[in-house]
Amino acid sequence: DPYFAEPTRHPALQINSQKPFNAEPPVSILTDSYITPSAVFFKRNHLPVPRVVSETYKLEIEGLPGGAVSLTLSELKSRFPKHTVTATLQCAGNRRSDMNKVKQVKGLNWGIAAIGNATWSGARLRDVLLYYGFGPDVAAKARHVQFEGLDRDVTGTSYGASIPLNKAVSEEGDVLLAYEMNGEELPADHGYPVRVVAPGIVGARNVKWLGRIVVSDEESKSHWQQNDYKGFSPGTDWDTVDFKSAPAIQELPIQSAITHPAEGMSVDSNAGEVTVKGYAWSGGGREVLRVDVSVDGGNTWHVAKLRTSDEHNPALPPSPGRAWAWKLWEIDIPLPDKAQELQIVCKAVDSSYNVQPESSAPIWNLRGVLSNAWHRVKVKVSE
Ligand code: MTE
Ligand code: MO
C-alpha cells in the first residue's frame, strides 16, 4: 500500500478524500484564532505522504554555476539564518463548492476552509540560491525556480511546481524553505522535513516534502503546473480546453468569507443585532483594506473591524506589498425591522482596489479554481 506512511489526523477534520488525504477544518472553528493550529490546518495531498527520514534527507539544487549540490537538513538549518513569516496558504480550489452550484466542475468539493494562516520558519530561498552561486549570469538566462516533492505516483513521478525567479530571489518575496510550522517541526501532512512557503502565491506552488530545486529558463514540466491550476472562460469546456493557452496561477485574487453565523442558524430577534465574523486575504502581498458586510443581500452595507493578530502573538504591521497574512474581521449589525430571514453577504477590497465579483456564474471555470464571489449565508430570525 503506497499509503503506508499516512500520519494520524485530527478527528474534527472534514474529509474530502481519504487517499490521497484531503480535508478542511469545520467552518465553526476556522477563525477561532488568528494562527490556525497545524492539526486542523487544511490538508491537500495529491499523492501518498512520503516517509522522509531527517538523518538521510538531502535537498538537491540544480541550475547554478558550480553544478548540482546537495545539502542535509542540519546544513540547511545551520548555514542560513532562520526567518519567520506569518503567511496565509490558500488552495486554488477553496470555495469550489460555490462553483459546483452553478454547474458541475471537476475537483474536490472544498467549502470555505481550504485556507489557513500559520507562522513558518526556515531558510530564505534567496539566501540559499545566493550561497550556491546565483548571480547576474544566472539571472540573465533563468526565469523560474522549479520544485520537486519527494511524494511520487505509481509511475514514480513526483509532485512538482515552479514560481517566477523574481519572486524566489527578491528580498521582499519572503520565500522560505520552511522546516517549522507554528514553532514546531513541520507535521508530516504539511511537508516534513522541508517545504516551500511562497507567501502570496497559490497553495499548489508551496511544494511539500521538498527534494529538489531547479533554477531554469522553463517552468516546471509537472502536470500540476502545465495541465491544471489554470483559469479559463466560463465558455470553455473539457472538449475545447487548451491548457497551453492560459498561464499557471501564481498570485491569487482577493478573497473573503463568512465563518459565523453558519448557514441555517437562527438569530434571536430580541438580541437586536447579529455578530458576523470571517476572514479576508489577497494574493501577491496585497493588503486587505476593507470588508463590507450586508445582512439584506447587498442592499445596505456596513464596514467590518479588521484584526491582524492574536494579542499573544502580535504581528508587525505589514510593509507595503508584503501583507502575506489574512485579516480576521467582525461586526455587530442591527437587525432590520421585522426581518424574518437575513441574507448575510461579505466582500473585501485589497490595496489595489480589487474587489470580489458579485456571483460565481461569470467566473465559473471547468476546474472550479479562483472561486471568490461574494460569500452569502442565509439565517432565520426567531422570536
Ligand atoms: N506539495 C507536494 N509535494 N505534494 C502535494 O500534493 N499539494 C499542493 C501544495 N504542495 C502538494 C504540495 C497544494 S495543491 C496545496 S493547496 C498545498 O500544498 C496545501 O498545503 P497544506 O496541505 O500544507 O495545507
Ligand atoms: Mo491546492
From TrEMBL:
Its EC number is 1.8.3.1. It catalyses: sulfite + O2 + H2O = sulfate + H2O2. Transmembrane segments: none annotated. Pathway: Sulfur metabolism; Energy metabolism; sulfur metabolism. Signal peptide: none annotated. Keywords: Heme, Iron, Metal-binding, Mitochondrion, Molybdenum, Oxidoreductase. The keyword Heme applies. One of its GO terms (biological process) is nervous system development. Its cofactor is heme b; Mo-molybdopterin. This is Sulfite oxidase. It comes from Triplophysa tibetana. The chain holds residues 205 to 587 of 592 of the full protein.
